[in-house]
Automatic annotation (TrEMBL):
It catalyses: NAD(+) + NADPH + H(+)(in) = NADH + NADP(+) + H(+)(out). InterPro entries: NADP_transhyd_a_C. It is a multi-pass membrane protein. This is proton-translocating NAD(P)(+) transhydrogenase.
Length: 98
């Protein structure tokens, strides 16, 4: 595939993702965050594979560093997703009365 095809698919995916996320009702945000965390965990596995393949290849320092960046960014996304999910679930808990 040429660059224009890949770029157009990326732009269309951004538009679809934007409209899907903003049209979700608030009750479904917590399950949506759980799915996002699962996808990010798959990204971490792929980034680890890319980093390992880069370490074994001749002159594969670029793949190694990109794999590291992928692991770091996906980890931030996972931990942030869990923090947001925990905060949203806390909103539905009954408050203690004194």
């Amino acid at each position: 595939m040429d660059f224009i095809s890949i770029l157009s698919i990326f732009v269309l995916a951004c538009f679809v993702g934007y409209y899907v996320v903003w049209s979700v009702t608030p009750a479904l945000h917590t399950p949506l965050m759980a799915v996002t965390n699962a996808i990010s965990s798959v990204i971490i596995v792929g980034a680890l594979i890319a980093a390992a393949a880069g370490a074994q290849a001749d002159g594969g320092q670029t793949a190694k560093w990109l794999g590291l960046v992928g692991v770091v960014l996906a980890s931030v996304n996972i931990f942030g997703g869990f923090a947001v999910t925990e905060r949203m679930l806390a909103m539905y808990k009954k408050k203690e009365r004194k």
